[in-house]
Amino acid sequence: MTVLIVDGGGSKTRAWLVNAETRECLKETEVGPSNIATVGAEGLIHALRELNKKLPSGPKADTIVMGLAGVGRRPERQTAFLAVRGVFPNADVHVITDGELAYRGAFADGRNGILLIAGTGAIALYRTPIGHEFVRAGGWGPLLGDEGGGAWMGREALRHCLLEWERDELNPLHAALLEQLEIETATQILTKVYHENFGPTEWAKLAPLVFRYAREDIGALRILKNASIELVALVEHLQETLAPEAQVLPLSVIGGLWEHHYHLQPLMEEEIRMRNLPIVFTEPAGGCMKGGLVFLDERGKLK
Known about the structure:
By secondary structure, the protein is of the alpha/beta class. It has helices at about 35-55, 75-85, 100-105, 150-165, 170-180, 190-195, 200-205, 205-210, 220-240, 260-275, 290-300; strands at about 1-10, 15-20, 25-30, 65-70, 90-95, 115-120, 120-125, 135-140, 250-255, 280. The chain has two domains: about 1-105 and about 285-300, ATPase, nucleotide binding domain (Nucleotidyltransferase, domain 5, 2-Layer Sandwich); about 110-285, Nucleotidyltransferase, domain 5 (2-Layer Sandwich). It is built from eleven helices and ten strands. Strands 3-2-1-4-5 form a five-stranded mixed beta sheet, sandwiched between helices. A five-stranded mixed beta sheet has the order 8-7-6-9-10, sandwiched between helices. The radius of gyration is 20 Å and the shape is globular. The N and C termini lie close together (about 10 Å).
């Protein structure tokens, strides 16, 4: 049996074609965003079609596990299911959230802990030892939440530039952002955001500038410190609500922002110490490909 495991987020969609018997990855590929909350059903279908083009010719996957951002509610999950079936009509399709997929991989070794996903958005997940139910904190999208995520960080960088413009200042982050956006003054940010569809996916692309200039621009450092506070707050909420008696609670962090962990982790560790939380950083046991196989194992779909 051949399994296609997909991790679809707000910036990109990764996929693995796997031989279910040997657990060997036959093909790994990547396409654009597929978060149904931001790109809609048509955007998801487009990403799936692009993905299908990159898969090897011949027999397609027998089973598909789709871990998608934006499908936490039943209506969006059903819409995504129909979109997947439209592109892969002969496959046995399973649609879960990208967080549930990633959690199963991160804690594939049987531990219980918190998974923090810091990508375009930000969400923390915990799976209860009894009942194995997933409980979340955050992940409400760029308009209502996602504090500490990449889109939030990019938006804060835009606000930082506008505030500096009001004070007639031009510090390194401000100058770099103008250059990347190919604009001459911060006031043109308003045109891009309100009239040129420059939204959360584009905001997230500005986050690397914040990391790049954190050592020389106090504004960039302030954004990072605030991000670390927001991310730790997500973790604290789950710990206090679901594991208040824990002496040690593992925390695994994944997502595009964590590529800059050398900036974020020390700031988060400082915040964890200040709050006296029993949180200890730990490496994930596996990735999303592993999570998809664990999902199928739980349902007796694999031998």
